[in-house]
User: Which sequence fits this backbone?
């Protein structure tokens, strides 16, 4: 019997919005615990692109519990480490992948975001209904369920709706309020796209920095290509996150004159299949649920790429949210409350790290606060909370018993 059929028998229908990382991950666990799951993704197909994202600490445990350890490791970038270089390419600093027990700057599990999304989708597509090229146009909820009208005109009813639709979540705007209320721009912009590997990259990532901007090249599994990244400081950001043309113009303008290999990387901008640019921002909300609607991943608690933990939080949050809902017999009040209680501390630690890292990139003005001292004990403790700050309950047995697990 497929997971969806089991959920169908129980009558728990869950709509998940967004099929990147958080969406397919929570769909996996909901399906495993017996819900009938539909995932709706606005893009016409799974979105490619993005730099490597990392799984550290408890996020690695979650991947193991999903049974995906081997397949995720097989898709990893196999990056040996990172060098920072000067304009002539001379090495300034070295960070090896095995530093800090594999949980450091270059994590032991580093996978391109698009590849991770594909792995999660492949692992769930059989038991889960995926709808591409559609999105929620209207939503109303009552005590027992949520009525959804899709942009395609389709109308359906679900018991629960989970928003995993990222930093600019439309579901968040629809249910909780306008973006400005929750989105905190950290003063930086990042752009990623793949380029031909004409730079002789092997297993080492190269980064070149100037005040307020930088360029980076990362080796990927396909040795004929490399993933490029540009970073620049920007006090504000008002480019539409769906207007690729405007984003490319902004990038060209802001990194003009950048040294090292930047002009050669920029020469490929018009021909890349997977351009992605976005502001570095966090989402801070004092609650992640409203009635039968709950948010997950970047939509609820983006910690920004500056924390290096957005994907880890999405994976761990997916495990905890689905597990707590099932353990609460699918009662949204109890399940959502326990999900928040378990996740808050880890989320806040990662948001703190994201803000600290963003500060280190700022060009110091005359009144600038002193740079944080990352060698202090306080930072070690913060890192532990950020990487391992959630105890993962063992939710197995939930679908058979239908009763809350004892902890
Ligand atoms: C193309 C892309 C590239 C990225 N590259 C990087 C990177 O290089 N480094 C990094 O640190 N982080 C990157 N991120 C963000 C990273 O994926 C997240 O921080 C983290 O993995 C948590 O993911 P998420 O699933 O919560 O959100 P996201 O990964 O942002 O996914 C949200 C998904 O929801 C979909 N969606 C949006 N609106 C709707 C809607 N109204 N209806 C239905 N679906 C909708 C989007 O198309 C997307 O597939 C990228 C995200 C995307 C989408």
Assistant:
């Amino acid at each position: 019997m497929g997971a969806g059929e089991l959920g169908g028998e129980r009558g728990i229908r869950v709509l998940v919005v967004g099929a990147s990382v958080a969406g397919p991950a929570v769909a996996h666990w909901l399906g495993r615990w017996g819900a009938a799951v539909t995932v709706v993704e606005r893009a016409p197909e799974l979105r490619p692109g993005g730099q490597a994202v990392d799984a550290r600490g408890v996020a690695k445990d979650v991947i193991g519990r999903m049974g995906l350890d081997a397949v995720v490791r097989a898709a990893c970038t196999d990056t040996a480490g990172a060098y920072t270089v000067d304009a002539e390419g001379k090495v300034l600093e070295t960070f090896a992948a095995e530093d800090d027990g594999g949980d450091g700057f270059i994590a032991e599990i580093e996978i391109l975001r698009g590849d991770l999304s594909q792995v999660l989708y492949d692992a769930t597509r059989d038991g889960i209904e995926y709808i591409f090229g559609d999105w929620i146009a209207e939503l109303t909820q009552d005590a027992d369920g949520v009525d959804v009208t899709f942009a395609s005109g389709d109308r359906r009813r679900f018991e629960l709706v989970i928003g995993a639709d990222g930093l600019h979540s439309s579901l968040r705007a629809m249910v909780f309020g306008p973006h400005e209320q929750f989105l905190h721009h950290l003063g930086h912009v990042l752009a990623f796209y793949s380029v031909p590997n004409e730079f002789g990259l092997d297993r080492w990532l190269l980064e070149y920095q100037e005040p307020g901007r930088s360029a980076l090249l990362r080796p990927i599994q396909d040795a004929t290509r490399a993933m490029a990244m540009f970073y620049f400081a920007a006090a504000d950001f008002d480019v539409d996150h769906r207007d690729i043309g405007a984003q490319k113009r902004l990038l060209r303008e802001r990194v003009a004159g950048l040294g090292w290999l930047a002009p050669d990387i920029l020469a490929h901008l018009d021909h890349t299949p997977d351009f992605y640019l976005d502001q570095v921002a966090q989402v801070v909300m004092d609650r992640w649920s409203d009635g039968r609607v709950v948010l997950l991943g970047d939509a609820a608690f983006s910690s920004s790429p500056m924390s290096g933990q957005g994907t880890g939080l999405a994976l761990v949050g997916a495990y905890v949210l689905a597990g707590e809902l099932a353990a609460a017999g699918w009662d949204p009040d109890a399940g959502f409350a326990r999900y928040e209680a378990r996740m808050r501390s880890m989320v806040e630690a990662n948001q703190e790290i994201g803000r600290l890292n963003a500060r280190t990139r700022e060009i110091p003005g005359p009144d600038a606060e002193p740079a944080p001292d990352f060698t202090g004990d306080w930072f070690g403790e913060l890192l532990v909370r950020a990487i391992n700050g959630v105890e993962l309950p063992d939710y197995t047995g939930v679908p058979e018993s239908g009763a809350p697990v004892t902890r």
Notes: The longest helix spans residues 332-360.
